[in-house]
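Below is a filled-in request sheet from our internal design queue. Each sheet records the structural input a requester submitted and the sequence that came back. We keep these sheets so that new team members can see what a complete request looks like end to end.

REQUESTER: design group, bay 2
PRIORITY: normal
MODE: inverse folding
CHAIN LENGTH: 401
BACKBONE (tokenized):
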């Protein structure tokens, strides 16, 4: 079994990494903050329009990624894959008006040799600092608290564009803490998960986030207390298969949802109308290879903005069949690798949680939230850099083993 790294841990590992990996981490930081700023209600920051700040950070991130791609080990097949996938992402962006698949593709293609635990530590810092920063802006009157009145009371965004956005950063922070402190105290891990769940419940009212965080706490207890390795491996494999079944079910309900079917209707109510919305958008326009911009279509009573929260249905409808097929193939390959590797660590649990999250929230396949997808790099590029180690955790002496 591939075990969790026993080398140097902590943020000092980031300081001991290679130059090309360092600029990749800097790109990830810049892009993650650009996403965080984009999900706030701020119009300007220090006199600079928020849109200009976001573009500046993304341009900087892109420059870093270009530098990284020319410094990583690439063969002829790798370069063909790189340009083909980037071209697909670019075409999809121009057709759909959304660029998150393109950014995911860029980070994956430039991600050879990248340490997922370092990304987790970066993501933990970015998520926590984004929440704190937005709360400071709220107290200063520079952002507004978006209130949504639901069946479970008033939901607060505390300066983000939607309460679910705040819940998203709570989820990402908790999972990132799990990944980067998996070998630490189980009580600290549980405290983190349950504290985030409490805030998500009382402040944001996000049922999806609460359920996922409680599920994380259950997994923590199970995998830390159960001593039978075989039982833990079987459980992990069953959960991964269950996650894949949920993805398949997402496509099924998108196409075959029937409001007259009691089971469909009950599930739709449980999922806050997600099934019905995905099905309605699927009926509005035919499926496309590279996506479409729904803003030009008549919505027939649907929300004015494209509102499909299930990540896979969203990707399929908005960014097209080909990007969806590519990403789904990569995720399946990644899950198969995790299963065959017999891994039991925070990285595998984090990947599992994010796959489940993707079946309810679009951010589940956005790279700033689901950085575990970056581990697809060796698969996508046909590069065997990590043979003998792991796609999740490359054996690189420069970061300590």
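RETURNED SEQUENCE:
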């Amino acid at each position: 079994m591939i075990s969790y790294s026993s080398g140097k841990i902590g943020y000092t590992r980031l300081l001991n990494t290679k130059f090309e990996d360092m600029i990749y981490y800097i790109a990830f930081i810049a892009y993650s903050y650009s996403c965080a700023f984009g999900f706030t209600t701020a119009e300007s920051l220090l006199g600079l329009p928020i849109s200009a700040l976001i573009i500046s950070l993304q341009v900087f991130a892109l420059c870093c990624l270009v530098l990284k791609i020319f410094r990583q080990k690439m063969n002829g097949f790798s370069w063909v894959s790189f340009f083909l996938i980037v071209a697909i992402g670019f075409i999809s962006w121009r057709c759909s008006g959304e660029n998150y698949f393109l950014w995911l593709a860029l980070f994956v293609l430039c991600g050879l040799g990248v340490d997922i635990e370092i990304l987790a530590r970066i993501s933990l810092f970015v998520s926590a600092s984004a929440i704190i920063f937005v709360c400071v802006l709220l107290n200063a009157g520079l952002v507004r608290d978006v209130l949504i009145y639901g069946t479970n009371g008033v939901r607060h965004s505390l300066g983000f564009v939607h309460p679910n956005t705040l819940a998203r950063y709570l989820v990402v922070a908790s999972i990132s803490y799990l990944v980067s402190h998996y070998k630490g105290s189980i009580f600290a891990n549980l405290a983190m998960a349950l504290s985030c769940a409490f805030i998500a419940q009382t402040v944001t009212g996000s049922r999806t986030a609460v359920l996922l965080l409680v599920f994380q706490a259950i997994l923590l207890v199970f995998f830390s207390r159960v001593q039978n390795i075989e039982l833990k491996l079987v459980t992990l494999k069953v959960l991964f298969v269950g996650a894949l079944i949920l993805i398949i079910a997402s496509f099924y309900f998108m196409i075959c949802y029937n409001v007259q079917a009691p089971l469909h209707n009950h599930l739709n109510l449980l999922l806050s109308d997600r099934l019905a919305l995905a099905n309605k958008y699927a009926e509005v326009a035919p499926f496309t290879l590279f996506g479409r911009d729904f803003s030009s279509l008549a919505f027939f009573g649907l929300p004015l903005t494209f509102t499909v929260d299930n990540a896979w249905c969203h990707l399929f409808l908005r960014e097209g069949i080909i990007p969806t097929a590519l990403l789904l193939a990569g995720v399946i390959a990644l899950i198969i690798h995790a299963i065959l590797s017999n891994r039991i660590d925070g990285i595998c649990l984090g990947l599992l949680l994010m796959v489940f999250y993707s079946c309810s929230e679009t951010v589940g396949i956005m790279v700033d939230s689901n950085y575990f997808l970056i581990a697809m790099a060796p698969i996508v590029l046909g590069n065997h850099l990590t043979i003998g180690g792991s796609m999740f955790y490359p054996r690189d002496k420069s970061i300590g083993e």
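SHEET NOTES:
- The first strand starts at residue 44 and ends at 45.
- The chain has 16 helices and four strands.
FILED BY: M.R.
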